[in-house]
Write a structure and sequence with these properties.
Order of helices and strands: HHHHHHHHHHHHHHHHHH
Radius of gyration: 23 Å
Largest sheet: none
Distance between the termini: 37 Å
Structural class: mainly alpha
């Protein structure tokens, strides 16, 4: 998902030769000491240089944990780099476009990873810098491409933030999404829409958000579903399992039910059944659960839906050992709500449950 970000670090140049040469040196730095030495003179660093240095730090922390330097050493360098970003935001705001913002949000997620051993103070400072960038005049709903918008939204929605107003971010994301879709922009993919659907459903709302109450709250989800249905069949068929799972979960968590959303979820179930080997157990259970959650309690499940769920159960029989408890629960609940029976699957579920109950657990 983030491979393009790595290429961006390697190819994006600063505003002058000094900036580009500096980026090459930072990319060649593989230790904390070399990164610190290369970035010692912050007055020569562009925003891209700072982002590259932060990216190099995440690689050291993730791939060389056996030689972890002291936490304070890393924190000091991170704080120094973030302070320079704040300085650049005030003096050279044009360097902070939507692509850079998406990259910065990605780096925040990386530094928030439990394996990074970065202090809460550093994370707090990072969040404040991201918040300042999001509030800058450079980032406007009409100017943010949907691929950047989706990465910003997804990156912020998947983690808790103490210094970023996520309700305000949601309002911004919805405005930008609707602007692009109303303009008939073709510059978006199923992946963009899937990530935005999931993120908007996860974000909290604020009192001033026009898309907060009653039917207005469902406007972005209806717009996403409509955009999906307008795509040609081959485009939707090329959607990745992860994106389809995100899309379905977004609709499910939004609690929005309409003929348009139901049609997208039905297409999603069809696509799943036709390509079951491509999907992980988690993605299968998420899509089945989302489809069933949208299903009205007053409508009897037709034979074709029962057959599709039976095919899912048959596939899961061969992967029962890979299923987690929540995934089993999702599929069982879906089958129960839609009155679908599959004896081999439920026999294995019963066997798995009895084994779990008879196995002592350490509290």
């Amino acid at each position: 998902m983030w491979a393009r970000r790595g290429r961006w670090f390697a190819t994006q140049l600063g505003p002058n030769l000094r900036g580009s040469k500096m980026n090459e040196k930072i990319l060649a730095a593989t230790t904390l000491e070399s990164i610190r030495s290369t970035t010692a003179h912050t007055e020569y660093l562009t925003s891209v240089n700072v982002a590259t240095a932060l990216s190099q730090l995440t690689k050291i922390r993730l791939y060389h944990n056996q030689h972890n330097p002291k936490q304070n050493d890393v924190d000091d360098l991170v704080i120094k780099l973030l302070a320079h970003l704040e300085h650049l935001l005030g003096t050279k705001p044009k360097q902070f476009d939507s692509r850079f913002t998406a990259t910065l949000v990605h780096l925040l997620s990386k530094f928030s990873d439990k394996s990074m051993y970065i202090s809460p103070e550093s994370i707090s400072r990072f969040e404040k810098v991201v918040s300042q960038v999001l509030n800058s005049a450079k980032i406007q709903p009409e100017t943010v491409p949907l691929n950047d918008l989706s990465m910003i939204a997804w990156g912020l929605a998947k983690r808790s933030n103490n210094h970023i107003n996520l309700a305000k971010v949601r309002s911004f994301v919805v405005q930008s999404l609707l602007y692009h879709l109303n303009q008939g922009s073709a510059a978006y993919s199923t992946r963009d829409l899937a990530l935005l659907c999931w993120a908007i459903a996860k974000f909290p709302t604020e009192q001033s958000d026009p898309y907060r109450l009653n039917s207005s709250a469902f406007v972005p989800f209806e717009a996403i579903a409509t955009a999906i249905l307008r795509m040609d069949t081959s485009t939707f068929s090329s959607i990745s399992p992860q994106s389809l799972s995100c899309l379905c979960l977004g609709f499910a968590h939004s609690t929005h039910s309409s003929p348009t959303v139901s049609q997208v979820l039905s297409l999603s179930l069809d696509h799943l059944v036709q390509s079951l080997p491509r999907y992980s157990c988690r993605e299968i259970s998420n899509i089945v659960w989302a489809f069933t959650k949208n299903w009205s309690d007053d409508v009897t499940c037709p034979p074709d839906i029962s057959l599709k769920l039976s095919k899912v159960c048959q596939h899961l029989v061969s992967t029962m050992g890979e299923l987690k408890a929540q995934e089993i629960a999702n599929v069982c609940w879906s089958c129960a709500k839609l009155s679908v029976t599959h004896e081999p699957f439920f026999a294995l579920v019963k066997q798995s449950l009895l084994h779990a109950l008879s196995t002592p657990h350490i509290s």
